[in-house]
Amino acid sequence: MEIKREVILAPMAGYTHSAFRRLCRSLGADRVYSELMNATGIIHRGEEKELIYFTDEERPIHLQLYGRNPEEIAEAAVKVVEKYRPEAVDINFGCSVKKVLKAKAAGYLLQFPKEMGEIVEETVKALKPYNTPVTAKIRLGFYEDTLEEIAENLLKAGVSAIALHPRLAKQGFSGKADWKRVKDLKAIAGDVPVIGSGDIKSWREIDEKFEETGCDGVMVGRAAVSNPWIFTEYREKREIQVSLAERIDFILKELNLMWEFFEKEKACKAIKAQISQLFKGIRGKARLNDAVMRSKSCRELIEKLEEIKFLSGG
Ligand SMILES: Cc1cc2nc3c(=O)[nH]c(=O)nc-3n(C[C@H](O)[C@H](O)[C@H](O)COP(=O)(O)O)c2cc1C
Predict the structure, then answer these.
(1) Torsion of CA 140, 10, 182, 201, to 10 degrees
(2) Which of 93, 140, 222 to mutate to test the pocket of ligand 1 (most atoms within 8 A of CB)?
(3) Whose CA is nearest to atom 12 of ligand 1?
(4) pLDDT value of position 313
(5) What is the mean pLDDT of each run of 10 residues along the chain (314 residues)?
């Protein structure tokens, strides 16, 4: 698959649903990923609309799956590809939250590079008739850095792109992402595109990572939640000041899009986590946040946001 100097919205459970992805694509993100979805759940209970829903404006999109064994992941992959035709299916080998580790899936599998290869191989085989590539998102290892062994197994299995968050799974988000390892991966991946992910905070850092590592894609995660304009900043090579009123307009737009696939009140609850991020760096943030967080319904939330916008002069 071809990926050339792309800036990509990183998958983030709870944040990167269809509404946010669409807005980020319109602001300049080149590619998006869904958040991780459980393969067993997809096979036995069907897809969850809030997670699987996407529109053509979001393409290219990778639908991300996680699971325990090759057969299940391959079966779930076929199911979502037949129905939704994403540009790629991505397999999550990075997440290490308790629930996922207990299921011996995702980040847990970093301890078993051979099994990671088997999962990719089986999924590649299953998706061949659909011409849909399989990509993987990984970390350096679980307790120790075994990147070379992991990469070798994935490449042998026919992976079409690898996204690396260069931390150990046991680190969670502590310490710093080691982008030297993205460069190392690029050196062994041959023609397979390599995407780096971790700690990007500004458009300048995106440029730096492309230059320093030679990678094919740079993902932006947490920084995009508080500043989705980072994608435009990168394209225009300049910082953009976004007013409080513009930030509120963004939230209202996002909410409207969320209602296509989210129950109304649930969407209003879900968006609160992002609102506090979007208010980062705004004067009087604590007070604004407090007012928004206390709202008990969509009506109250929207009234509050409109009042704050009005008072800010927007
Ligand atoms: C709240 C949150 C949820 C995440 N969910 C996922 C996920 O569903 N799938 C995945 O591959 N990575 C997930 N990640 C990891 C990010 O994609 C990314 O690799 C990581 O946050 C480092 O990049 P950043 O420093 O730009 O945020 C998540 C990260 C955060 C903060």
Answers:
(1) -110
(2) 222
(3) 11
(4) 81
(5) 98 98 98 97 96 98 97 98 98 95 96 98 98 98 98 98 98 97 98 98 98 98 98 98 96 98 97 94 87 94 95 82
Task: Name every protein residue with a CB atom under 6 angstroms from any ligand 1 atom.
Answer: 10-14, 35-36, 64, 92, 94-95, 137, 165, 197-200, 220-223
Q: Is the peptide bond before 113 cis (omega within 30 degrees of 0)?
A: no
User: Cα of 173 to ligand 1 centre, how many Å?
Assistant: 9
Say if pTM beats, i.e. exceeds, 0.85: yes
Closest CA to 65 of 20, 122, 7, 21: 122
255-259: Cβ within 8 A, 24+ apart: 255/19, 255/298, 255/302, 257/18, 257/19, 257/22, 257/23, 258/17, 258/18, 258/19
Position 291 scores a pLDDT of 87
Secondary structure class of 206 (helix, strand, coil):
helix
Q: 95 an active-site residue? A: yes
CA-proximal residue: ligand 1, atom 23 (nearest): 198
The catalytically annotated residue of 95, 215, 268, 298 is: 95
- Phi and psi at 240, nearest 5°, equal -120, 130
pLDDT of residue 207: 97
Give yes or no for a contact between 44 and 78, defined as CB atoms under 8 angstroms apart.
Answer: no
> What length does the chain have?
314
- Is residue 282 within 8 A of residue 247, CB to CB? The reply is yes
